[in-house]
Amino acid sequence: MVTQLDPRASGALGPPPDADRPAVTLRGVTRRFPRARAAPVTALEDVSLTIGRREIVAIVGPSGAGKTTLLELVCGLQQPDLGELAADPAALMPQRDLLLPWLDALDNAGLAVRLAGATRPAARREAAALLDVLGLAGFEHARPDQLSGGMRQRVAFARTLLSGRPVLCLDEPFGALDAITRIELQSWLADALTREPRTVLLVTHDVEEAIVLADRVLVLSRRPGRVVAEFPVDLTRPRSRTGPALVGLRVAVLEALR
């Protein structure tokens, strides 16, 4: 069962009245997918976790461990077969940016605002203010094919933020980028979340990325995915990638993945 804990409209910002309640809670969640003439595939099994408000939690695990399934459950795009899930309204940023090629950056970023009922001029005003903050001033009228991969990801992130959902589910947001751009956008995202704090559930295959960005790192097992380890990240920000504490934590997470 999925319960939307925040009764307000999805476009509302700010914490709900019961600010002490976790933003996301899973208790014994199992998700299975039926197959024709074969046994169902269990993607997740008996997963329990709690995410506090404005906490950033990273999920790492092998391919097929159910990481994307977990995000879609939190966003209400799937339903668990067993267990309970309660979450504040959540927005999903998928692996691909999914920008509409016929819209410019302003209209792509403001799409969620338009879908919530705002006029196009109002949505473009909101998008313009955020794109400026995210370092895209001067590219507001560019279409996706005129933007670099990093710029496209910033537009997609702006669109996710402008959904107004208090929980952001980010699915490998930088997985398709080259190493240099990926590191630059990791730093950019850390800064963006400092300016616009939200509850974040981040799926990544990059252990270093998880430690640089998250307050906690959860490790999923091979399918069916279960939480097999949890690592608090008690490091000051900004975080040094070469510092001994981060390097040691990276080694520990990699060992848990094995």
Helix content: 25-40%
Give the name of the CATH superfamily of the largest domain: P-loop containing nucleotide triphosphate hydrolases
- Return the string of H and E elements: EEEEHEEHHHHEHEHEEH
Number of helices: 8
Rg for CA atoms: 18 Å
Major sheet: order of its strands? 6-7-8-4-9-10
Structural class: alpha/beta
Number of strands: 10
Low-confidence stretches: 4-17
Quaternary organisation of the protein chains: single chain
Number of separate domains: 2
Can you summarize this structure?
The chain is an alpha/beta fold and 258 residues long. The chain has eight helices and ten strands.
Keywords:
2 domains; six-stranded mixed beta sheet; globular; four-stranded mixed beta sheet; 33% helix; 258 residues; alpha/beta; 25% strand; Rossmann fold; 8 helices
List the helices and strands and how they pair.
Layout: E1 2-4, E2 24-35, E3 38-51, E4 56-60, H1 67-74, E5 82-87, E6 90-93, H2 105-109, H3 111-115, H4 120-133, H5 149-162, E7 167-171, H6 179-195, E8 199-203, H7 207-213, E9 216-220, E10 227-232, H8 244-257
Parallel strand pairs: 1-5, 4-8, 4-9, 6-7, 7-8
Antiparallel strand pairs: 2-3, 2-5, 9-10
Helix pairs in contact: 4-5, 7-8
